[in-house]
Write a structure and sequence with these properties.
Distance between the termini: 57 Å
Shape: elongated
Radius of gyration: 19 Å
Strand order of the largest sheet: 3-4-6-5
Number of strands: 6
Length: about 180
């Protein structure tokens, strides 16, 4: 591991592990999730400026992060990792074309998605492609999901929220957003 100097005024997004609700504040802070590469900082040397909150699971459409641009994408993805949650976001491609992205890896190995849920998601995404609501290059999992070419931010947010709910085993929003009978 390399040595890293921290200076007063440095701002970092860091991770602290411990029991939920524990108030001792003595657990060290880490500069990343990979403990082999991260730097450890004693809790007594850290001033907390902001605690990033996880997205609710499932996340309502109006709270789905807009991850347009590399920095916004990385911020949203790091937030999902920090809270061991399924990543979900929308991105503006151009004018009124949107992308929906979801990834179950940040939720960790304890988060599983059943084959029934995977099949429902694949079928819904296939219907969207067949109806020309999403481009042909839709990526249908099993871990990472992406749909390009969605017309309109509201529709993209609706589909992202439905996909997020499905990845937490609630298929009703997906069935409403992408009905089998058109």
């Amino acid at each position: 591991m390399s040595l890293r100097l921290f200076h007063a005024g440095d701002e970092l997004e860091m991770v602290q592990w411990g029991q939920p609700g524990a108030e001792d504040g003595m657990a060290p802070w880490w500069t990343g999730q990979n403990l082999h590469e991260a730097h450890k900082v004693p809790a007594s040397k850290v001033e907390i400026l902001e605690v990033l909150q996880p997205l609710p699971a499932p996340c309502p459409a109006h709270l789905i992060p807009d991850a347009t641009g590399a920095e916004a994408f990385h911020d949203a993805y790091r937030n999902a990792i920090a809270h061991r949650a399924v990543f979900v976001a929308v991105e503006c491609e151009d004018r009124d074309q949107w992308t929906v992205k979801a990834d179950t890896l940040p939720a960790g190995p304890g988060h599983t998605v059943s084959e029934t849920v995977h099949e429902a998601i694949r079928a819904a995404m296939t219907r969207l492609v067949d109806r020309r609501e999403a481009d042909l290059d839709a990526y249908k999992g099993p871990v990472y999901f992406m749909m390009h070419g969605l017309r309109g931010e509201l529709r993209a947010r609706e589909l992202a929220a439905a996909l997020h709910a499905a990845l937490y085993a609630d298929l009703e929003p997906l069935a409403r957003a992408v009905p089998a009978v058109y």
